[in-house]
Amino acid sequence: MKIYDHYIIALASLLLTTAVIFAALDETRLGLCFSICLIETLALNELYIYLNPKAKKRLNTVNYMLFAGFSFIVVAKASEAIWGTNMAEILWGIIKLKITEML
Q1: Mean pLDDT, the chain, integer
Q2: Which residue range forms the structural domain that includes residue 88?
Q3: 49: helix, strand or coil
Q4: How many domains in the chain?
Q5: Which terminus has fewer CB within 10 Å in the chain: N or C?
């Protein structure tokens, strides 16, 4: 097996274990779940970047996308605290509106 296969198996096992723990604890906060999975993924990415320098470019792309998701959650929580608006609900309403317009 190549190192990429080991990476995929390790990441899937790690995230599955985390999801099972969250389900057992009845955790429903998306921000917490995403943050924990983000930390796990970044730690595993750094380990595999160290083991295989050729994978650095691709894994850095994944890291940037995860950071963008984390930044959205931070901005959503900050706007909720400052203005009292829930950005996730507003975004979901816009998505629903666009989908119904397309139909």
Answers
A1: 83
A2: 3-102
A3: helix
A4: 1
A5: C
What is the distance between the alpha carbons of residues 100 and 56, in angstroms, rounded to a whole number? 41
Tokens of 94: 């816009």
Please check whether residue 45 is in contact with residue 53, taking contact to mean a CB–CB distance below 8 angstroms. Answer: no
CA 97 to CA 18: how far, in whole Å?
34
What are the tokens at 70?
């984390």
pLDDT tens-digit map of 1-17: 777 788 889 999 999 99
Q: Enter the pTM of the model.
A: 0.66
Q: Per residue in 16-48, is it b (16+ CB within 10 Å) or e — as a string?
A: eebeeebeeeeeeeeeeeeeebbeebbebbeeb
Determine the Cα–Cα distance for residues 51 and 87; give it in Å rounded to an integer. Answer: 39
End-to-end CA gap in the chain: 46
For 39-72, how does the pLDDT look when each residue is reduced to its tens digit (9 = 90+)? 998 888 888 877 777 777 778 888 888 888 888 8
- Coil, helix or strand for 71? helix
